[in-house]
From TrEMBL:
InterPro entries, per database record: Bacteriocin_Proc_Enz, Nitroreductase, Nitroreductase-like, SagB-type_dehydrogenase
Pfam family, one: Nitroreductase
Protein name from the UniProt record: SagB family peptide dehydrogenase
Domain Nitroreductase: 99-235, 396-507
CDD domains: McbC_SagB-like_oxidoreductase
Highest taxon above the source species: Bacteria
Organism: Metabacillus elymi
Length: 521
């Protein structure tokens, strides 16, 4: 019951879920990247191409191609510096600087890490950590682990056809130090944004991919040498140049994490965090423990009755997928704060935005028994000053490529009153999107693991929305500091058994006065 209450408060009453009297020790914050030491290091090529257009798909990628792939997914791509006025009466200024990646992160803290199991010709087979700060690989464990991983994934993947497997982990302290218990919600969303970027980059490289949310956690963490009191894997993503890696469950096979732990010796690689004092985060560890799987076979999501969203249908113009230069779009992606400007958004732009985000969101995963993908997260949106559409709150019906009006009128002031901080002026925003999911997060099928899967899927859709907006020369700013109860009321989500997971103001913007350095050659 305490875990259910924690997740409820995390979403609907964050003050109840937060640690009281929390003070952030900025001087003792962790690094935004993990640093291993005293291990073999393999530098990756720094001559990053300026575009991916016209590239040939190799029969099997080499180390240079892997370096490009990892940099696009999670490499450090930008240094920025800007000035914040602290006290106008004393003319005090604070200079802020940060290292950014193409995949955004709450507070630019990047709680996730990337590990890869690689089997390519110019590199010893084994488990590597992607060191984003130095753009290199660090060898954690050398060897051939196809059988071990096949067992840990419940015999649902043909790893012999894969040249690599990516592991997305979460380091709890990396954003707990700032957001305390609220970081549990953020960590799943951040992982999802990263996975969304990874899947999109994989498409551009011609790699087949899919997301495994269910696996033997302790066996995977053991393989990577992770200490589960500080870090745990959230998803496993095999990569192949052949679209044949997926295989059905082998009935009767029951894999146990305890058995796998005996197959390979433990490793304890040394790493540097920077923080000298790490506070305890018992609720995050309890949630992680409750979400772990110790045996297979794993479960599919149970089918349930879909509730129809009723409302006046507003058809959108038919459009095709947006064609854009991927790297250029990643480079110009921007999260405006007070930089939004209320420009006119055309009906065609809105149609492209919604269609592109939902069509690009389709992906293979291990929680659906069929290949027919039914999205578990959807888009609701408050619109203002959109050409040809009355102001109001709408549901985007991706099957019909149409809007359904739920609540007419201008909702910007109401949404503004529900924000916990005034960092975005919604009066200047024509599109305020909400990614929405089921309140029960498929708990009956997936248990508490369903919550973090839902957050990851929300993050994946967020990244598709941000990329589509950037391709259309608009900016988007994902926000969790909003009144969920209020936004749910605007769309009458209670009647649907759904709730708002994240809010994204989106629209035209002006350039911010800041210093930007692009970190590529």
């Amino acid at each position: 019951m305490i875990l259910d209450e924690f997740l409820h408060n995390l979403h609907f009453d964050i003050d109840q879920a937060s640690i009281p009297n929390w003070e952030v020790d900025w001087g003792d914050g962790p690094l935004a990247y993990k640093l291993y030491y005293d291990l073999p290091e393999i530098p990756l090529s720094l001559d990053i191409p300026l575009t991916l257009e016209g590239q040939e798909v190799p029969d099997k990628p080499n180390l240079r191609k892997i370096g490009y792939f990892l940099w696009l997914v999670y490499g450090i791509t930008q240094f920025s510096q800007y000035v914040i006025p602290m006290d106008s009466s004393e003319n005090q200024l604070q200079i802020m600087h940060s290292l950014r990646r193409f995949a955004p992160s709450g507070g630019a803290l990047y709680p996730n890490e990337l590990y890869v199991y690689l089997k390519i010709d110019d590199l010893p087979e084994g488990i590597y950590h992607f060191d984003a700060s130095h753009h290199r690989l660090v060898l954690l464990r050398e060897g051939h682990f196809d059988d071990y991983l096949t067992d840990a994934l419940g015999y649902r993947c043909d790893l012999t056809s894969c040249f690599g497997t990516v592991f997305v982990s979460t380091m709890f302290w990396k954003n707990f130090f700032k957001y305390n218990n609220f970081s549990y919600r953020l960590q799943g969303l951040d992982a999802g944004v990263l996975i969304g970027q990874l899947l999109e980059v994989a498409k551009r490289f011609g790699f087949a991919s899919g997301v495994y949310y269910q696996f033997l956690d302790r066996a995977i963490n053991h393989l990577l040498g992770l200490t589960e009191q500080e870090e745990s894997v959230y998803s496993v993503i095999p990569l192949s140049v052949e679209p044949t890696m997926w295989s059905g469950n082998r009935h009767g096979v029951n894999s146990l994490a305890t058995d796998l732990l005996q197959e390979i010796p433990p490793i304890q690689p040394k790493h540097y965090v920077r923080s000298k004092k790490m506070k305890e985060f018992p609720m995050l560890l309890k949630m992680n423990e409750a979400s772990m799987l110790d045996s297979s076979p794993f479960r599919w999501i149970e089918e349930k009755e879909m509730r129809t969203v009723e409302g006046m249908v507003v058809p959108l113009p038919p459009v095709k997928r947006v064609s854009y230069d991927f790297m250029s779009t990643c480079r110009k992606r921007f999260s405006p704060d007070m930089d939004f400007i209320l420009g006119k958004v055309s009906l065609q732009q809105l149609a492209y935005l919604l269609y592109e985000a939902t069509e690009s969101f389709r992906y293979r995963n291990d929680i659906e028994e069929t290949l027919i993908y039914e999205p578990r997260v959807s888009i609701f949106v408050c619109l203002y000053n959109i050409e040809g559409i009355p102001n109001g709150a709408y549901y985007y019906d991706n099957r019909e490529h149409a809007l359904r009006q739920l609540n007419p009128g201008d909702h910007r002031l109401q949404l503004q009153s529900g924000m916990s901080s005034g960092n975005v002026n919604l009066q200047q925003v024509p599109i305020t999107l909400h990614v929405v999911g089921d309140k029960d997060y498929d708990k009956d099928s997936l248990g508490y693991r369903g919550y973090r899967i839902q957050q990851m899927e929300a993050g994946m859709l967020v990244q598709r929305l941000l990329l589509a907006a950037s391709a259309l020369d608009m900016g988007g700013h994902p926000l969790l500091g909003f009144d969920v109860n209020q936004s749910d009321q605007i769309y009458n989500l209670d009647s649907l058994g759904k709730t708002s997971l994240i809010q994204i103001p989106m629209g035209p913007y002006r350039q911010r006065p800041w210093l930007i350095g692009r970190l590529y050659t």
